[in-house]
């Protein structure tokens, strides 16, 4: 019997040790559960689009003239205005954007015009732009530094505008590339679904000029950007757009595009 009791005691000891080992191995709470895959931090925002908000949605443009574009849907390629993967350049995003065609050698040059006698002086950019006559009028410029507008036509949400401001995108080595990115940026201030067709391009003193057509549905606008170094910390941008509901003012797009000068 002593042998039997001694065997039972040994078995009980083995069971106790096994239970102790199980208790030690098993986690005592959620803090001891193994972590899942680590999510990579969000990519840095593109220089040519708005930064993503904490929820992942794009911020709305601050200007509603013309009506801003809606948020772009997710696609397999880079989404215009969205965050890019690390190492993806602003120019690569431009070339991948179906709204902006390549600027080829077939696009004609900009015809020079006489200098404007009356100008709007933007000392923040170091630039002077033509001051357009009536019905154009000065308007509250924010968030730009100068602004001229046409009166709205009844039943439309768009109207002609001329604005200046420090360059809102990252400057590129080539002034031509900088102007291309600036033109893409202006689509934020055109109606949803806007696409560009190039009309004219020209190197200018200290910068570049682009004139283009913006098409959205059955409507369109004539627009231009001028990127010019006015001697400030950043180049200046002049942007003009006039919808086809005010097409009688389309010649003034060319007048602005060829009339931008550095302040003397």
Distance between the termini: 116 Å
Low-pLDDT stretches are: 14-64, 66-83
CATH superfamily of the largest domain: Mog1/PsbP, alpha/beta/alpha sandwich
Highest CATH level, the class of the largest domain: Alpha Beta
| Strand line-up across the major sheet | 3-4-5-9-8-7-6
Which shape, going by the Cα principal axes?
A: globular
Major sheet summary line: 7 strands, antiparallel
The helix count comes to: 4
Structurally, the number of domains stands at 2
Quantity of strands, as a count: 10
- By CATH, the architecture of the largest domain is named 3-Layer(aba) Sandwich
Hey, roughly how much beta strand do the residues contain? 15-25%
Mean pLDDT: 77
Q: Helical content, roughly? A: 10-25%
N-to-C series of helices and strands: HHEEEEEHEEEEHE
Biased composition (Low complexity): 45-81
Region (Disordered): 37-81
Describe the secondary-structure layout.
Layout: H1 2-25, H2 90-96, E1 119-122, E2 127-130, E3 137-138, E4 146-149, E5 161-166, H3 175-186, E6 195-204, E7 207-216, E8 219-228, E9 236-243, H4 251-259, E10 261-262
Antiparallel strand pairs: 1-2, 2-10, 3-4, 4-5, 5-9, 6-7, 7-8, 8-9
Description:
By secondary structure, the chain is α+β, with helices and mostly antiparallel strands. The chain has two domains: 2-30; 90-262, Mog1/PsbP, alpha/beta/alpha sandwich (Protein Transport Mog1p, Chain A, 3-Layer(aba) Sandwich). It has helices at residues 2-25, 90-96, 175-186, 251-259, and strands spanning 119-122, 127-130, 137-138, 146-149, 161-166, 195-204, 207-216, 219-228, 236-243, 261-262. The strands form two sheets. It has a seven-stranded antiparallel β-sheet, sandwiched between helices. Strands 1-2-10 form a three-stranded antiparallel β-sheet. A hairpin with a 2-residue loop joins strand 6 and strand 7. The protein is globular and about 45 Å long. The termini are far apart. The model is unreliable at 14-64 and 66-83 (pLDDT under 50).
């Amino acid at each position: 019997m002593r042998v039997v009791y001694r065997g039972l005691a040994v078995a009980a000891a083995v069971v106790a040790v096994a239970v102790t080992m199980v208790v030690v191995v098993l986690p005592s709470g959620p803090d001891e559960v193994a972590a899942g895959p680590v999510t990579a931090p969000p990519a840095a925002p593109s220089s040519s689009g708005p930064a993503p908000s904490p929820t992942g949605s794009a911020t709305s443009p601050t200007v509603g003239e013309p009506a801003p574009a809606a948020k772009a849907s997710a696609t397999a390629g880079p989404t215009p205005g969205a965050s890019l993967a690390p190492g993806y350049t602003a120019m690569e995003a431009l070339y991948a954007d179906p709204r902006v065609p390549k600027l080829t050698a077939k696009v004609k040059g900009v015809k020079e015009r006489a200098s404007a006698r009356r100008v709007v002086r933007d000392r923040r950019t170091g630039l002077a732009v033509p001051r357009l006559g009536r019905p154009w009028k000065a308007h509250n410029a924010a968030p730009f530094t100068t602004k001229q507008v046409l009166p709205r036509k009844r039943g439309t949400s768009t109207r002609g505008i001329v604005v200046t401001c420090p360059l809102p995108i990252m400057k590129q080595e080539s002034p031509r590339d900088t102007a291309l990115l600036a033109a893409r940026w202006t689509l934020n201030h055109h109606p949803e679904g806007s696409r560009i067709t190039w009309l004219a391009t020209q190197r200018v003193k200290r910068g570049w000029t682009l004139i283009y057509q913006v098409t959205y549905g059955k409507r369109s606008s004539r627009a231009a950007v001028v990127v010019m170094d006015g001697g400030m910390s950043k180049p200046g941008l002049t942007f003009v757009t006039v919808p086809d509901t005010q097409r009688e003012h389309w010649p003034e797009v060319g007048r602005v595009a060829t009339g931008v000068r550095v302040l003397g």
